[in-house]
Amino acid sequence: MTGLARSSADLDPRRRRILFRCWHRGIREMDLMLGQFAEAEIADLCEADLDELERIMAEEDNDLIKWINGAEPVPERHQTALFTRIAALRPDFSLVTREPDGTAK
């Protein structure tokens, strides 16, 4: 399950690729953070924002989580309006499916 609710049919190939990569990070929390952000905003991002989003996506998930939740300071290279918008997102974690023992899939 990706959580994807938006069709990518109207997106150009670059935006489709970014949307897919945002939903397939490796750590479910980052799938939800970046996936829901991209789903809501990908169609309206300018080329410079797409470049920046790709730079953010190149970071390790564990680092991104620490920066977003405030456990570590955000590096200067990511102290931008776009990163702030991503970090301000409060994703719908109910999209995480649960195993019978209560752990997230």
Automatic annotation (TrEMBL):
Transmembrane segments: none annotated. InterPro entries: SDH, SDH_sf. It holds the Pfam family Sdh5. This is FAD assembly factor SdhE. Keywords: Chaperone. It comes from Rhizobium halophytocola. The keyword Chaperone applies. Belongs to the SdhE FAD assembly factor family. It comes from the Bacteria.
